[in-house]
């Protein structure tokens, strides 16, 4: 009996480590039409190497993105056209941040850190669905691409390199 309990405990520990092995968002739900503070949690480096850059792709419908600078890191944004226009505080937005990147930093594998930006979630995003933020993590000559998005009916937990995502809740 003890062997089975130990084996079950070992499996739980392995499962927990696997679940923590990828980049996630601290808050995994948000209402459409609201402001969302995205906190990307980076729990480790790439294959034991120090993280030197983190880039996140901003999905359509996430607008007015403002990233938070990090001391010791260079912050860059890439702007582009939205697929359609959005209304925000009486203004029509047709372009905005499509990617945020922090580079030149030094996050050793044994440490954890967070990378933050805030944005507005368009009111016409589909409540009840998931919205994914693909992330590329660079560690010198190694790169981890957290970019897999599950297809309809596919379990996100089954993906090897899942993109972090949030569940869209109805507008409040």
Report on this structure.
The protein is mostly beta strands. The chain is 10% helix and 49% strand. It has one helix spanning 2-19, and strands spanning 24-25, 29-31, 35-42, 51-57, 62-67, 74-88, 91-107, 113-121, 130-132, 135-139, 142-146, 165-169. Strand 6 (74-88) and strand 7 (91-107) form a beta hairpin. It is globular, with a radius of gyration of 18 Å.
Layout of SSEs?
Blueprint: H1 2-19, E1 24-25, E2 29-31, E3 35-42, E4 51-57, E5 62-67, E6 74-88, E7 91-107, E8 113-121, E9 130-132, E10 135-139, E11 142-146, E12 165-169
Parallel strand pairs: 2-12
Antiparallel strand pairs: 1-3, 3-8, 4-7, 4-10, 5-8, 6-7, 9-12, 10-11
Tags for this model:
172 residues; five-stranded antiparallel β-sheet; 1 helix; 49% strand; disordered N terminus
Summarize the structure.
Helices cover 10% and strands 49% of the residues. It is mainly beta. It has a five-stranded antiparallel sheet with strand order 6-7-4-10-11, with no helix packed on it. The protein has a four-stranded antiparallel sheet with strand order 1-3-8-5, with no helix packed on it.
Strand percentage? over 45%
- What is the chain-wise order of helices and strands? HEEEEEEEEEEEE
Shape: globular
Radius of gyration: 18 Å
> What is the helical fraction, as a range of percent?
10-25%
What's the end-to-end separation, in Å?
51 Å
Helix tally? 1
Report the structural category.
mainly beta
Please give the number of β-strands: 12
**Major sheet details:** 5 strands, antiparallel
* Poorly predicted runs: 1-20
- Determine the mean pLDDT: 89
How would you name the oligomeric state of the polypeptide chains in this document? single chain
Major sheet: arrangement of strands: 6-7-4-10-11
């Amino acid at each position: 009996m003890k062997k089975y309990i130990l084996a079950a405990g070992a499996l739980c520990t392995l499962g927990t480590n696997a679940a923590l092995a990828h980049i996630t968002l601290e808050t995994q739900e948000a209402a459409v039409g609201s402001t969302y503070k995205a906190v990307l949690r980076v729990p480790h480096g790439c294959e034991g190497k120090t993280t030197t850059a983190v880039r996140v792709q901003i999905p359509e419908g996430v607008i007015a993105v403002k990233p938070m600078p990090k001391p010791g890191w260079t912050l860059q944004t890439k702007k582009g056209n939205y697929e359609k226009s959005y209304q925000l505080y009486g203004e029509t937005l047709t372009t905005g941040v499509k990617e945020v990147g922090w580079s030149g930093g030094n996050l050793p594998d044994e440490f954890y850190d967070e990378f933050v930006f805030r944005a507005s979630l368009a009111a016409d995003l589909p409540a009840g669905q998931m919205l994914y933020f693909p992330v590329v993590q660079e560690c010198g000559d190694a790169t981890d691409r957290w970019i897999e998005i599950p297809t309809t009916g596919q379990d996100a937990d089954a993906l090897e390199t899942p993109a972090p995502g949030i569940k869209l809740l109805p507008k409040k």
